[in-house]
Amino acid sequence: MKVAVSGFKGRMGHEVVKTILKEEGLELIAVLDHKPKEKNICEIAEFSTVDVPVYSDLATMLEESKPDCVVDFTTPKVGYNNTKTIIEHGVRAVVGTTGFQAEQIAELRKMAEAKKIGAVIAPNFAVGAVLMMQFAQKAAKYFPNVEIIELHHDNKLDAPSGTAVKTAEMMAEVRDYVKQGAEEEVELIEGARGGEFEGMRIHSVRLPGLVAHQEVIFGAEGQGLTLRHDSYDRVSFMSGVALAVRKTKELETLIYGLENILD
Ligand SMILES: NC(=O)c1ccc[n+]([C@@H]2O[C@H](COP(=O)([O-])OP(=O)(O)OC[C@H]3O[C@@H](n4cnc5c(N)ncnc54)[C@H](O)[C@@H]3O)[C@@H](O)[C@H]2O)c1
């Protein structure tokens, strides 16, 4: 499969390039970033033996290099438009960029189905994180009192994380609505109780040194349950990305969430 990587100079994109280069059956044919100074990836010391053109415009890359699939790890601001452009060109998409609204995903799914194009958008490509979300959904049925604390590096642009939102959405499907905290509670400092999603509270921590971490804390009479997942290194996302790239070949729709393509 001919694969192009969008956002290749970013923290995730760089890891994706290394993965595509070593995965059997996947061929890196083009890379894209915002105003890159390189014309070919071989100008980067680490990739000096690799001959792959660098693009600064997505449509040009799609038209000239004709990839089978584009992996996009860019920024929440451009993720939606990039995915739209990729699908409009009849190319399969694997998108790890976060910040999508539910309506945007629904619209992109319609486009993918109309074009019979496979696409996967996942806010978290780490299998352990997906398991954490599934365990959280199972627990939320019995423990409706729950708060999420997500912790990320301090260059992250969106809050809360896509993983936290997805976890809350999955719990909301099975959880009896409960508004966390005392009815008369007052925030002495604005935001102290975090963001609210269907009565659940989500807290975002941003610190240097962190990668991607999340705790889902359940409380009930006389007992507590805490689920925690840690991505210590971005390599934790790569087996999920490679799986999604291969999976797009079998799909004629857009799948949201790695859990929906795991066997
Ligand atoms: N799904 C997952 O498993 C997962 C894991 C970690 C991070 N993320 C998300 O992935 C995204 C990227 O994260 P990161 O840490 O690599 O960010 P980053 O800032 O290190 O990298 C983003 C890259 O995208 C490039 N870019 C910006 N606009 C572009 C455009 N229009 N076209 C092409 N490239 C463009 C930037 O120049 C940069 O190189 C974020 O949304 C982040 O939340 C997802």
TrEMBL record:
Biological pathway: Amino-acid biosynthesis; L-lysine biosynthesis via DAP pathway; (S)-tetrahydrodipicolinate from L-aspartate: step 4/4
PROSITE patterns: DAPB
UniProt keyword terms in alphabetical order: Amino-acid biosynthesis, Cytoplasm, Diaminopimelate biosynthesis, Lysine biosynthesis, NAD, NADP, Oxidoreductase
Enzyme Commission no: 1.17.1.8
Reactions catalysed according to its record: (S)-2,3,4,5-tetrahydrodipicolinate + NAD(+) + H2O = (2S,4S)-4-hydroxy-2,3,4,5-tetrahydrodipicolinate + NADH + H(+); (S)-2,3,4,5-tetrahydrodipicolinate + NADP(+) + H2O = (2S,4S)-4-hydroxy-2,3,4,5-tetrahydrodipicolinate + NADPH + H(+)
GO molecular function: 4-hydroxy-tetrahydrodipicolinate reductase
EC top class named in words: oxidoreductase
Record-annotated active site: 152, 156
Domain Dihydrodipicolinate reductase C-terminal: 128-262
Annotated NAD(+) binding sites: 7-12, 96-98, 122-125
Localization, UniProt: Cytoplasm
CDD domains attached to this UniProt entry: DHDPR_N
Domain Dihydrodipicolinate reductase N-terminal: 1-125
Gene3D superfamilies membership: Dihydrodipicolinate Reductase, domain 2, NAD(P)-binding Rossmann-like Domain
Binding of (S)-2,3,4,5-tetrahydrodipicolinate, residues: 153, 162-163
InterPro entries per UniProt: DapB_C (IPR022663), DapB_N (IPR000846), DapB_N_CS (IPR022664), DHDPR_bac (IPR023940), NAD(P)-bd_dom_sf (IPR036291)
Residues involved in NADP(+) binding: 35
Subunit comment: Homotetramer.
Function recorded in the entry: Catalyzes the conversion of 4-hydroxy-tetrahydrodipicolinate (HTPA) to tetrahydrodipicolinate.
Record-stated family: Belongs to the DapB family.
Protein name: 4-hydroxy-tetrahydrodipicolinate reductase
Organism in which the protein naturally occurs: Listeria immobilis
Gene: dapB
